[in-house]
Amino acid sequence: MDFRVLPSGNLTLTNLTAPGCLCGDDTDLSTISLGIRDGMLCAPAADLPAVDMRGAMVFPAFVDMHTHLDKGHIWRRAPNPDGTFDGALAAVEADRTANWSGSDIRARMDFALRCAWAHGTRAIRTHLDSIGPQAAISFPEFTRLRDEWAGRIELQAACLTLIDRIDPDGGGEFADLVDLVAQSRGVLGCVTFPDARLRDRLRAFFDHAGRRGLETDFHSDETGDPDSASLRVIAETVLETGFDAPVTVGHCCSLAMQPDAEWRHTLDLVARAGINIVSLPMCNQYLQDRVGGRTPRWRGVTLVHEMAARGINVSFASDNTRDPFYAYGDLDMIEVMREATRIAHLDHSRTDWTNAFLTSPARACGFDAPGLVPGAPADLVICRARDWTELFARPQSDRIVLRAGRQIDRSLPDYAELDHLMR
């Protein structure tokens, strides 16, 4: 059998290898068979032609819960001059001011979605820069794309503004942004950092979200400065206000640099508040502790093992793609899984980390996560690899992606499509 081509129609895939946590047991890997009938998974049956998959690993289609589709693929016209976080901020701000028209954003977002589709992703949350007039440009383009991609990739958008632009006394520019997010069926988001009125601004933020019934998603403490501790203040504010809609916080890099007593106290609060955490290992390793002429001293990731041990819902995601915050990437969740395993030492650890790329982000965002059970859509990613070391040793470029039981064309879009935007 040519691994890259499956017979069409209803069939049973035998001798598949799946992570045990997706099969309802605590083993590392399990051997399973999956029936496919009329685009749905079913129990293997005698009337379904059997195909021996020779141990190939199988996953449900992936969930990528933290991306920046609006920034994606601008590197050629807006490279980061020195690879630092400040360099990224300046490069993106200049490019946004000069180039982020509706047609520019739409072309780049659609290009990124076609990449994610080919790699086997079924759901994405993106952040959209929402400072000044940009939100009114980006959100309408996103909502049109969300409708066009319905049935292929489920999409959500979170606004991205700065905590110091929120007036604790209400009103102003942020109130208008909340209205736009609510009208767009979006998620309320912002970047937090040390601020003299952080607690007051967060109270106002959650008040806006609560009154409009919005979920929330933060970028927080994306720094190696141990004094950056806004995650703790977010958790305290959630507990103080009783805010009961889902709260997600991304990055949280500074936790890894804080004294033991401080990070332990913060994580205990995060667990009590029921906050979801998403780690972005590729981008954070790229940016954090980058100083010219000096070898970095740490990996940039947050304390994912300590979080999981407390029952905190931890996920991993792509973050930026070919922009000043991360020069590489392709919205490929198998790449994210491979690099997260290496960077955060997920191997020699729990046997359920696979959930951090599937069910955990789905739970955080409210996406469906049907898994590998009968009655679920036959949305599968099948890799030639037969175990973890084979999976992570190669990029699995010859993987099979099934959507509704049908093998999709995995041809990736050509970067040359974007050349006219890079001039």
Automatic annotation (TrEMBL):
Its EC number is 3.5.4.1. It comes from the Bacteria. Residues 191-406 form the Amidohydrolase domain. SUPFAM superfamilies: Metallo-dependent hydrolases (SSF51556). GO terms for molecular function: cytosine deaminase activity. It is an enzyme of class 3 (hydrolase). Keywords: Hydrolase. The keyword Zinc does not apply. Pfam families: Amidohydro_3. PANTHER family: CYTOSINE DEAMINASE (PTHR32027). This is Cytosine deaminase. It comes from Paracoccus mangrovi.
